[in-house]
């Protein structure tokens, strides 16, 4: 569509007053000389001559400054930059911004035109999708995919620590005797016990039907053994209320040092867990000492 100059001004006024986007114009020094009414939600008054960067949280100021400088330098193709904007009530509201060069009739740059678009809803949806992807819906612990990713990071970063694995004893029998609903309650009870007994830095995941994994950063094998032994002993000492019944729930556990590779760490922990079950369950086994090549 083609518009006259007056029609373009009318269209701009209509869009600026009805859109939730913040449309603003800066001079060559980055001072905002004009902005659409939507900027009022940030508590900003143009009469005070604020700079665009004054609206940006300190953590993202460099990225927004780079985008604005590119526009003021005459770069035509801008990109969207995400950043938290600081409002007068000091709450961070997330926006994305794109800036374009403003030129006069002689082609000289005299400022920049920018659009700030709220992305709070998009970030909430992104966080919800992330949680759905990496969270076990039954226990609200992280799932196997998240566990693998976290363990891989620890191995690659050569972080000291241990991997513990737990398996609820006779879980299939519980499901068959009391039903799957009771089995789900057992899983939630054990997940809550892990949250209560482990430290805030420990990363707890449900990695299978009745199996749980715990990453214990900056923890020696002896420290991990003491921590995990208490979990196994405490569970065995308590008769848990599950559904309408009170029953004894036990778990087998294992500990392996995070070393060599992701596969090696998991394999050593699983072998130790198999050993705990083979020796009668309701116990904790440490990984077997690794052989050192001559």
Can you walk through the features of this model?
The chain is α+β, with helices and mostly antiparallel strands. It has two domains: 5-123, Beta-Lactamase (2-Layer Sandwich), CATH 3.30.450; 138-286, Reverse transcriptase/Diguanylate cyclase domain (Alpha-Beta Plaits), CATH 3.30.70. Helices cover 39% and strands 25% of the residues. The protein contains eight helices and twelve strands. The strands form three sheets. A five-stranded antiparallel sheet has the order 2-1-5-4-3. Helix 5 crosses helix 6 and helix 6 crosses helix 7. The chain is elongated, with a radius of gyration of 29 Å. The mean pLDDT is 85.
Brief synopsis:
Helices cover 39% and strands 25% of the residues. By secondary structure, the protein is an alpha+beta fold. The protein has two domains: 119 residues, PAS domain (Beta-Lactamase); 149 residues, Alpha-Beta Plaits (2-Layer Sandwich), CATH 3.30.70.270.
Taken from the alpha-carbon principal axes, the silhouette is elongated
H-E string: HEEHEEEHHEHHEEHEEEHE
Total individual domains: 2
Alpha-carbon distance between the termini?
80 Å
The first-level CATH class name of the largest domain: Alpha Beta
């Amino acid at each position: 569509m083609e518009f006259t100059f007056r029609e373009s001004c009318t269209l701009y006024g209509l869009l600026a007053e009805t859109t939730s986007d913040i449309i603003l114009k800066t001079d060559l020094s980055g001072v905002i000389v004009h902005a659409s009414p939507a900027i009022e939600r940030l508590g900003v008054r143009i009469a005070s001559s604020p700079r665009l960067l004054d609206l940006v949280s300190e953590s993202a100021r460099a990225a927004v400054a780079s985008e604005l400088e590119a526009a003021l330098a005459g770069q035509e193709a801008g990109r969207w930059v995400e950043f938290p904007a600081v409002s007068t009530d000091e709450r961070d509201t997330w926006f994305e911004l794109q800036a374009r060069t403003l030129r006069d009739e002689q082609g000289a740059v005299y400022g920049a035109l920018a659009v700030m678009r709220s992305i709070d809803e998009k970030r909430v949806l992104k966080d919800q999708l992330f949680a759905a992807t990496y969270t076990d819906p039954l226990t609200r612990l992280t799932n196997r995919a998240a566990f693998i990713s976290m363990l891989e990071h620890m191995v690659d970063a050569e972080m000291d620590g241990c991997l513990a694995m737990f398996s609820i004893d006779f879980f299939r029998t519980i499901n068959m005797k009391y039903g799957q609903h009771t089995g789900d309650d057992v899983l939630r009870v054990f997940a809550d016990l892990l949250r209560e007994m482990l430290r805030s830095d420990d990363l707890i995941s449900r990695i299978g039907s009745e199996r749980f994994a715990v990453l214990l950063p900056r923890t020696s094998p002896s420290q991990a053994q003491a921590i995990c032994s208490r979990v196994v002993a405490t569970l065995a000492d308590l008769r848990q209320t599950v559904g309408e019944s009170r029953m004894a729930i036990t778990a087998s556990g294992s500990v392996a040092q995070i070393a060599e590779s992701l596969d090696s760490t998991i394999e050593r922990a699983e072998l130790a867990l198999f050993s705990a079950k083979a020796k009668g369950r309701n116990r904790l086994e440490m990984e077997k000492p690794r052989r050192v090549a001559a």
